[in-house]
Amino acid sequence: MLDQMRAAGLPKRADVVVVGGGIIGCAIARELSRYSLAVVVLERAPDVATGTSKANSGILHAGFDAEPGTWKARLNVRGSRLYQSISEELGIPRRRVGSLVVARDEGQLGAIEELRRHGVENGLTGLALWGPDQLLAHEPNISPDVAGALWAPTAAIVCPFLATIALAENAIRNGAGIITECEVIGIEVVDQATTAVETNLGRIETRFVVNAAGVHSGDVARMAGDESFTIKPRRGEYILFDRSVGDLVRSVVFPTPNKVSKGILVAPTVHGNVFIGPNATEIDDLDDQETTSPGFAEIISGARRVVPKLPLAAAITEFAGVRAAAGNDFVIGPSPVVRGLVHAAGIQSPGLTAAPAIAEAIAEILAEAGLKLKPNSSFVPVNPVQPNFAHLNPCEQAKLIAADPLYGRVICRCETITEGEIVAAIRAPCGARTMDGVKRRVRTAMGRCQGGFCGPRVTAILARELGIPVTAVRKDGAASWLFVSREDLETAEQAYA
Amino acid sequence: MRDSRYDVVTIGGGPAGMAAAISAKKAGAKRVLIIERDRELGGILQQCIHNGFGLRRFEKELTGPGYAHRFIEMVKSAGIDVWLDSTVLSADPGCIVTSVNPEKGLRVVVSSSVVHAMGCRERTRGAIRIPGSRPAGVFTAGAAQRVVNMEGYLPGRNVVIIGSGDIGLIMARRMTLEGAKVKAVFEILPYSNGLNRNIVQCLEDFGIPLYLSHSVVAVHGADRVTGVTVAQVDESMNPIAGTEFDVDCDCVLLSVGLIPENELGRASGVQIDPVTGGAVVDQFRRTSLPGYFAAGNVLHVHDLVDWVSLEAETAGRSAALHALGKLPRVGGYRTVRAGDGVRTVLPQRLSPPAGERSVRFYLRASRPMGASVLRLHANDRVVWECQHRVVKPSEMIIADVLWKNIGSGQELAFTVSPAPDVGGGKIEPVAEMAE
Predict the structure, then answer these.
(1) Which of A239, A481, A490 sits opposite B179 (nearest CB)?
(2) Closest CA to B306 of B56, B70, B74
(3) pTM of the model
């Protein structure tokens, strides 16, 4: 029944179908919404930003890591610059905190000098090599036996899911569609050209399909008979700490990287927490987001090499994310097999940073492939600002409550989130449909109690706002129901009878 | 924004806040206010529908709501102001308390005294780093208790409980009575942190197995929990390879400890005891911030609600006397330390006596012991002792010590050590904690 209603919302045809509602798919949809086009994003989960986009380091890398000449190098530096305007337009929390790559010996000093050269070649400015004194003055909690560090002042931190949601919301405001719980099950190809996308909710005719399906982008390519790349998923685990220890580091602190990864870092978040991680474990299952004991041990010991005194008692949660690695570079460009299919795939680090630049590149590639890009004259680049109660001064708070009493009821006491903010997050374009959807938008259950207090209350608000029973409220995934009804269980008396 | 003036304000309307407000009124405070964020008074008691409350305070066995009801009636008849559905945003130096309510908006209260009575919160999965996926169906036991007893829903059908604290034990029984299957309770320690009576009445009576020295090493399931992997642990609580086994379940409840909900205290710079997580107080339950007092689980996690009420009566009376200018001034502190065998001691310091004959100390042992002797040392000399047949970290030890025993000792410390033989030792009957 619900599926039928949802199927009615599926367009019959579109100019561009974007497969995947992660940061890449949403950035592409927002970029394409600058033009007069019918664009639709299809997302398998109940919300955007539920794959790699929700579980990563949240870092806008300066851009010195990537080998000059690669997509990664080009799009990282461009993306990092684009975020300055995008975060202001869309109200995405971003802080330019700078990053440090710490060297522990002579060999690593050589390695960071090479990173600096890469950075200069990639067009970065402001890079500097710091000696131990300067480093320790900036980061007093770092291990005192360091040899030096590479300082990159343009590195920033961002909230990755708020970035994705803000891009999605702006795309919707400018006419794009985002359809959740819509899984692509086939791509129709006639004469080596895409003609339609087949989904669980029905069929959409389209000449252009953008493959931004993250870890599943290899599967999507195969649906069109394109086997030009394979995703080899890598899982990264993290431990997040409470804001009470938020001053552990001021900047993003990396060890000197190896060939596979940037290493285990210690970094602040835009919300004032600190995290350690990730490790990099090759896995078989594309959706394997389990954390592990050896993983925790690995990231704790890795982080301790840089910051010896970790406040482990202040850990509030652990999580893992899967990276869609496909070789050393991103897979960006038209399919070598099927016309109209364009890949934005194999997006691993620095994918979050590069996302807006990837979106620009994809728009260019689509234009070259024959898509007409006529400017959308009613394009509005900004999202309206939503009140953040905890950040207002008392006069503003009083005014807000007078205008809408729901802002006077604090639901999440750890983060001081009011019912007004939760309701706004549910009613917004690209609104929250799940508990974790509310959490990603307004930070309920993100604090030290992890939802112990606010969980039942947010459940009730979601049920009321969505007009569904409490037993239909979900945590995150399509079948992640939180509660069962008493009527579903025979009572003890019945069991004994 | 409206300003109002009070003599005593309690932040929180649970058992501590209500008892403090009532005793403040009795001690002569004229204008007394309780600020409570929930839609009714009573705090966590309202979801504790089992019995076992009130044996000390009322010499009667009551349910949680029954215990709360008695205090709510007293609050009403005492003429205490109550603000419900109101959350305190800050409690600043100078006893300025800012709160919000949907209808009344932002309200600033200037008081002579403030009692912190915010209670505690549950430790979470994140705090103890249980690996695995993060599906729906993992709840803290207290949150699940609220959902079952107050909202009328169930957190799952096949349940595994991690930790054998009293809330977990009580929820094992509750879920069984609701028709769910409780597969097992896994406790990482070699002993349970719950009361013996609860192990018998909540587990053994229902045939629910309790695995000691076992830990959940992974949670499985993508959308909803599908099971857990469990392993036996060694003496340093590390999983022993090869002992793993899987248990199918669709729900995991955690009962792994409570932490004082003391963010308002921390934010305003109250000195904190790193072990209890609550404020450092003297025998009047006076914190380091002038005019601020604290009582109940925000100060240290209690085992029985009765002790919460009794402690809060002390804090409320002190808060009233402070408002009336009758509480002795701060100064001349003696320190009280937790020595060998003792994990926490309250109060952590003593002000000079103000006419009272004795001091009541609340202690927690650091490990279970059989026959033991509790000693108070003053300047390294034993000035008082008391024998116990058994000591458990889960049960608070109450020690009433006469001032004449304390004498002029400046450095006080409690210790617990094994006693070779105990005859007729002090045995406290035990009732359940309000959790």
Answers:
(1) A490
(2) B56
(3) 0.93
